[in-house]
Amino acid sequence: MALINLINLSEIENFKDLSADFYKVDFMNRSKTIRSLSYRRLSQISYITDGEHGSPCWSEDSGIKYITAEYVKENFIENGNFKQITIDQDIRNARARLRENDILIYSVGAYAGLTCVAEPHLFPANIPRSVAMVRLNNTDEFLPEFISVFLNSNVGKFQSIRFRAGNSQPVLALEKFRQFEIPVIEYNFQKKIKNLYQKSYSLRRQSQNLYQQATDLLEQELGLDKITFEKKKSYVASFSEVVNNNRSDADYYQTKYRQLEEHTNSIETVSLSSICTFVKGFEVGSQAYTENGPTFLRVSNLTKEGFAFGNSDKYISEETYKSLKSYQPKIGDILLTKDGTIGTCYVVDEYVEGIISSGIMNLNLIEQKIPKDYLALVINSKLCKMQAERECSGALITHWKPEQIRNLRIPVLKKETMEHLNELCSKSKVARKESKRLLEEAKTRVEQLIEEAAN
């Protein structure tokens, strides 16, 4: 049954947008909540711009990181191997050169509206046009951490959804950001939110450092730190190799993959199928999607650090969820992506209501000789990533076949070494979990304060 919402001409908030969606009852009510308080438009308190509109000029050694939209998450910047741009491009795009206290907003793409504060450990850095930058005129009235938490909260993020344009590629134009409304909240309260935000940031950095320690130690133990993988423009494969491998695509025989295979043969390994059983997720089909309900966990929801959620998440009904509940990931399950972004592995350490899609495999250890977090660390390492890339090379759409996954070679180290690496990963997860909890606490406090003040 269609829902009808009648509004008076005096209630029109935005004469540039007269669409029915803009005046949904929920949006109207949330806007009234903010307007019942003292508030400022974002344009009144900040300078707003976006990044480079042209093609980036890459550099290998400038040190200037290019923070693209995919790294902008809810109240944090995801750790990654950021590409670097040239000094000349950074100078040309000086207006978007990041500074401390800058606020970043994902503006073009599936997760348009996600917001975070620029993180000092990434400086010097710049941004593309798919990221908007908000630079506060001063921090005596508003703190960037408060604004970030507010715009990601239930009382603030509706504005991102309300002002977005486009379906397949949502866009938040700069003029839309300028209309965002920020409630004026007691400064001491904002400082408490800032404190929670910064503690969360510190713990996440600690988590990243522990995981990096584990990664570096693993590479040392495997001898990968002593190998320089070559990128030759030409290489030769024999006819017998083509027949035995049943592969005729040139990419499969790249020199770096031969180096990897030769090195892997020199260390003790086992096939993944000898230590794990496999269960593929279930594909419900887009016709089963609902506006809310349990989450249909797709490849985009999985990172090596845990589940990631955003504005483009898909949901299923309670009935569908109950009928497919055997596909719900449980704490301790080992999940592995097989389609699109392949080879991402994560040991589940948090409850989530939902089921995994067919692009994700659930691995179950047959015996516990190899620790779970060690196994995930290895699968996320260069050794296994390159194996997966080789098997999937030459394909337009990346699909890692189950039989190829079963043949993945997993290195076996001394028991005490594997346990030490497993412990580093476990400590990393504990710090990351506490970091997430603090951000959730900050968000809850903001929501409660605004709703109480409005009432």
What does this entry look like structurally?
The chain is α+β, with helices and mostly antiparallel strands and about 450 residues long. The strands form nine sheets. Strands 2-11-8-9 form a four-stranded antiparallel beta sheet. The mean pLDDT is about 90. The two termini are about 30 Å apart. The chain is globular and about 75 Å long. It has helices at about 25-35, 40-45, 85-90, 145-150, 160-165, 175, 185-220, 240-245, 255-265, 320-325, 370-380, 380-390, 400-405, 415-455; strands at about 40, 45-50, 60, 65, 70-75, 75, 85, 105, 115, 125, 130-135, 180-185, 270, 275-280, 290-295, 300-305, 305, 315, 335, 345, 355, 360-365, 410. Strand 5 and strand 6 (about 75) form a beta hairpin. About 35% of the residues lie in helices and about 15% in strands.
Count of DSSP strands: 23
Helical stretch count?
14
Averaged pLDDT: 90
- Approximately how much beta-strand content do the residues carry? 15-25%
Classify the helix fraction into a percent range.
Answer: 25-40%
List low-pLDDT spans: none
